[in-house]
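hey
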């Protein structure tokens, strides 16, 4: 089994979709480095639902594959990599990445902008982050139920922040950032799904033991049974991985092999 922990992120391919083999520390370091660089950099927090969407949506697949950093948000990705003989360092959940970045930015008077979730939620999430990480600057926040993109893009650009957290749900959040990347004026945009709901306290995160056992998906399903349909992506993903005879996850540079018949 290969160990993939060197500081330059190693890119893997999970059913044709890019994924970087990074630890949380490496992901934080990478984002902080990308923030300093000119231009926009997209960071994707990848889950198995997104991998399955990418199977039928080549445009979305290219979007993810063109990202500057893709971290393993879904526990199913770690399982898949292990089955294919590649060891991912650890899960890098979007919400944990947000907290680690907030902590790092607080120490350097850095700022972030929160875009997404129901009205009031991003503000509450911002307040919670500031309470937890004194020194953190909130450049702005905006709910995810706006009608026109233009004023939102302008507000983000005018805020002067270098880091945008977008919680509009996937694939909208990634598409939105790519569509407006040249006018946002930020160095890094990260899709963070429903993180603001949890940070604000409006939704509860799974208990630690469930997270450690990689059962966070089960907790979310129990809290929101309406997620069942979209969560069917997980068993479909597992069937594909099991049927691939160890070829579902490969190094990015290796040629793509079709699933065996
Ligand atoms: N959302 C939004 N605008 C919309 C639809 C959804 O801002 O038009 C928000 C929603 O309130 C939630 C997030 O997008 O905070 C999506 O959360 P979900 O749990 O579906 O994402 P996941 O964490 O599974 O990626």
């Amino acid at each position: 089994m290969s160990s993939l922990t060197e500081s330059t992120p190693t890119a893997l391919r999970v059913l044709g979709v890019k994924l970087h083999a990074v630890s949380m520390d490496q992901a934080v370091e990478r984002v902080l480095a990308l923030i300093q660089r000119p231009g926009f950099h997209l960071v994707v927090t990848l889950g198995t639902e997104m991998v399955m969407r990418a199977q039928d949506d080549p445009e979305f697949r290219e979007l993810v594959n063109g990202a500057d950093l893709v971290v393993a948000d879904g526990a199913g990705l770690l399982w898949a990599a292990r089955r294919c003989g590649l060891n991912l360092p650890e899960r890098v959940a979007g919400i944990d990445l947000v907290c680690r970045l907030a902590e790092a930015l607080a120490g350097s008077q850095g700022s972030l902008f929160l875009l997404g979730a129901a009205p009031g939620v991003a503000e509450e999430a911002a307040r919670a982050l500031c309470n937890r990480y004194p020194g953190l600057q909130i450049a702005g926040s905006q709910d995810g139920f706006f009608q026109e993109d233009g004023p939102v893009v302008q507000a983000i650009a005018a805020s002067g922040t270098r880091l945008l957290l977008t919680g509009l749900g996937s694939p909208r959040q990634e598409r939105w950032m790519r569509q407006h990347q040249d006018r946002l004026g930020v160095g890094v945009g990260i899709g963070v799904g429903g993180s603001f709901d949890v940070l604000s306290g409006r939704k509860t995160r799974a208990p630690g033991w469930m997270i450690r056992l990689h059962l966070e998906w089960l907790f979310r399903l129990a809290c929101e049974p309406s997620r069942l349909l979209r969560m069917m992506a997980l068993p479909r993903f597992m069937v594909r991985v099991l049927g691939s005879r160890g070829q579902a996850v490969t190094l990015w540079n290796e040629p793509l092999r079709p699933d065996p018949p």
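The chain has one domain: 2-244. The CA atoms of residues 114 and 141 lie 5 Å apart.
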